[in-house]
Amino acid sequence: MNPRRSYAAGTGLFILLGFAALAYLATQTTSLVNFDSGPSYDVTAEFTSVGGLKDRAPVKMAGVRIGTVKSITLDQKSLDAKVTLAIADRYNQIPADSYAKIMTSGLLGDQFISLSPGGSPDNLKNGSVIANTQSALQLEDLIGKFLTSGGSKSASGSSK
């Protein structure tokens, strides 16, 4: 094998390994890997806005993945987003008055649902509804609030 051919083969292998590494990282950071928790139970939560939340998004409690978003539909009566969560059966001690909040991983990352435990002696079970929810914060809304609050401070400061 001449040196030119082995150089080309090495370069090709390097590029192939680079693409494989990128594909692996993409599946790990975008939650495309299936979360196989085995048997699960379904609970629902209603949000006024789900932002960019998607099916199969993680459901976490204390930073630990305990389930996935099973479906997102529009409730025809309340016109809120109805989110069905599939929570692994092994996490069956979650208080019924727990709080569900849509969070974002990092500044521009994927969204997930974070559950904060309540104090109820009763636990969530199949068919339960999480009543305490907080919708997704939209980056555009935050920027708008920042700009308008900054503008009003400078306007009130100049009139003094």
Q: How would you characterize the overall build of this protein?
A:
This protein has 160 residues and is an alpha/beta fold. The chain has an eight-stranded mixed β-sheet, with no helix packed on it. The protein folds into two domains: 1-30; 40-139. Residues 153-160 have low confidence and may be disordered. The chain is built from two helices and eight strands, in the order αββββββββα.
Number of domains: 2
| Major sheet description | 8 strands, mixed
- Rg from alpha-carbon coordinates: 23 Å
Oligomer: single chain
- The rounded distance between the terminal residues' Cα atoms is 83 Å
Strand ordering within the main sheet: 7-1-4-3-2-6-5-8
DSSP helix fraction: 25-40%
Number of strands: 8
Overall pLDDT confidence: 84
Beta-strand percentage? 25-35%
Pfam family, one: MlaD
InterPro entries: ABC_MlaD, Mce/MlaD, MlaD_Phospholipid_Transporter
Domain Mce/MlaD: 40-118
GO molecular function: phospholipid binding; phospholipid transporter activity
